[in-house]
Amino acid sequence: MRVGKIISISELNVEVLIDDAKVSYHDLLRVPLPNGGALRLEVQEVNGRMVKTIPLGSVIGLKKGLDVESVGEGLSAEYSDQILGRVFDSYGDPLDGRPLNSVHRRNVYDRDLDFNEIDINGDVLWTGIKVLDFFAPMQKGYKMGLLGGAGVGKTVLIKELINNVYKGCNSNSVFVGVGERSREGKELYDEMTEADLLDKMSVVFGQMGENSAARSKAVFSGLTLAEYLRDVKHQDVLLFIDNIYRFVQAASEINAELQNMPIENGYPASIESDVAEVEERINSTGNGSITSFQAIYIPADDLTDVAVQTISSHLDGQIVLDRKVAEKGLYPAIDVFRTRSNMIDVEKIGQRHYHLVEETIRYLARYQELEEIIAVLGIEELSAADRQIFHRARKLRNYFTQPMFVAENFTGIPGKFVAIGDVLNDVENILNGVYDSVDEDKFLFIGAIGK
Amino acid sequence: MNDYMNTIVNESIARIKQRENSFNSGRVASVRDYILEVTGLESVGYFEEVHVGAKAVGYVNQIRENSVIVAVVSQGSPVYVGDEVTATGREFMATFGKESKGHVVDMFGRDLLNGKRFEQTMAVRIENPTTPIMDRTAVNRPMRTGITGIDMLYPIGRGQRQLIIGDKKTGKTQLCLDAIVNQKGQKTLCIYIAIGRTKKGVKEIYRELARRGAMDYTIILAANNDDKPTVLSLTPYVGLAIAELYMKQGLDVLVVIDDLKRHADVYREIALRVGKTPGRDAYPADIFYTHSRLLEKGCQYKNGGSITILPIIETRGGDITDYISTNVISITDGQIVLSKKNFDKGQKPAIDYGLSVSRLGGAVQDPAVKKIGAKVRRELLSYLETREIYELANTDEMSPELKAKLQRGQRMLAALNQYKFSPIPADQMVATFTALVAQPEQPKPQPVQTEQLQADPAVLKQSEEVAIHGFDDATLPADYRKPAAK
Fold first, then answer.
1. Predicted TM-score (pTM) of this structure
2. Which of A96, B109, B243, B370 could form a disulfide with B253 if both were Cys (CB 3.0 to 4.6 A apart)?
């Protein structure tokens, strides 16, 4: 059904003059093209008869005056068991070349959670990664952010978590690739297929080669799939999002094209509500839980970036990766001072763990100060006590590196899954000087000591 | 009277209907350097080629309610307000001379060395849709540069995008030329894309490559400093479109883009000129997408062909954390960082081994290279870090283990030195470093063994007591209510 015609076009903004039909925010329109295909448009703004839309495809060759039709519904994704083991694009269409026997589709924006639906209880979830379990332990239903600048190891960590938690938990999971590399997406798919692990997983890709409409919608499609698993299948769902920052980035691109006034660094003024719209849907209910791991890119290594801060205010914990640590070849390259979790609480993890974290941080903080002193005076100028802290801190630092299963290609060392009990014992022993006579290099890239 | 008016209007409508192109010409309403606002051009398509008489060629950049914005790509004489603009009905495309191999060319199919157009040409779409995710396969074949510091430590695979980043005069372009020269006999097509480099500089690169016989399999695609910014901004896409043609025939292609910082700046210039909202550092909001979709064209294709991309970025004051650099780092599959400090110390290539990364790592190395590479990288990084700490320390008081480590690190660093155009074959790299790592007077790195870590039992007992002291079992998660017995 014709509802209007195109009156202006730019790369990410097509304006439509509507005859008299009713259209509203998030409606889909389509433009039939001379070659038989069609371009879909999503309504962003309605101003009298003037409607601003974002095109869900390339606008090359598009002309003014072309007829625009109504599709009758907004973006939707499959909402049935058909989603398992499948790969979708941002708009819920299958990418793996197999037809989708659609049973039921659901609008991707529909679901909001009421206050009383949200469940905040959950069991502890150990990841087998020493630094994570020690400094930022997880609980089912948590949102854990993995923050890092470009090239410090976010994706490797996400993949290790998929390896350790998804394979270990045997629960359903959804992976959403937003604005990341197509190569990595394909590798993940191939690895999962080869390991026969795809059957409990659904994947959505809106990667960095796609336009901003695709990158901003992938999250919504992914959420819909996760909600199906939680609400209908009553599962404990693992949701991996790599990378949620790209969603905000895509929103900025759209905002700029719609000629809305931006805030600092070009972000949309609505950034808080844009992020909340997504994050508030990621929650556990009485039906099931959603535990999410979200990679967050830090633009220009600026941790105070508005988008990063806005997203991190929704998180229950965060792991911050640091270029200075990565530079030294210590992976995972974690900045322990900025890494945190709501679980670090005497009542939740117990006194022993809590006390060890405190003590470790104290050692490492002093170590940082000592490093500066050494740079000027040399190591021999330190007092005996400081020298002890210095050496033990270096051992701790080295101990918190870990060979990863998914990084065997880089390190040449097979991955290790380390139980929290071992971590606590080892850290305690290092702090107490049990290993004072052991060379610090021996602690690099090992699992638990002596195992 | 009414009838009369109706007749006139109907006649006009009939005329318009018969001559379908009656809207296909318009007039220039305003000129802002290479950005024209045109009125009357009603039925042009987005990105359609348009002509301003015989004076200029451009493409449709924006279609507005009452006018069209045209970006000019080539211009012979000045454009005035009121000049007629005609549509062509076809998408703006680049021209590619089929005999381009061995030549310096531009996106209009001209041979820049003699100024002539190639005889056999074809039109190339400036941008094809990104290669679908399912049409890609794993990147796992090495693309050897002949440089030990790269091939052994931070390897590049066919289909990988590896950023080369560093200050002025640190050997960025040289590294890429080395890689191109090393492709001789590898059935690889190389495309060197020069964006906004000096003409003199491009000519020198041509001479360097020609002298070493590398132009036989190389195309230099240049957008010179004095070309229109639009040309500078489109040329890398054209280069990748050409690369895609060859990749789809099953060939390996190596593309060098020199450089993307300049490209970002040119793109910013155009964006601000057409009135886009500035974002961080005044770059438009879609600057990430501008580079991500360009670099996503690099891939290992399902038919066996591949596109490897080496984009270059010039930094200032060695800062690789500025906006454009981190954007591109977050797109590429790794980066080779070149440091001015190392360069001045005489380390060639001036690779900063701490900051460089290859996300593919051992996946794209031969087993022998991979084995020794992982070892050398670990030792080298550990050496570089330890070196700083013990810079001021007294060597006499060091443990022999530490002393040996420092010496070995020094030797490794020296062995990584290598001058331009002197590639080293993989087996030679392996031999050199296997010998270095295994030198008898140095203790070999050993895996942690239990007995070594068995400490004084008294201390151990004491520490266990500390551990048990003062915590309430009931508050602990089940996993560690009781400390594991050792």
1. 0.88
2. B243
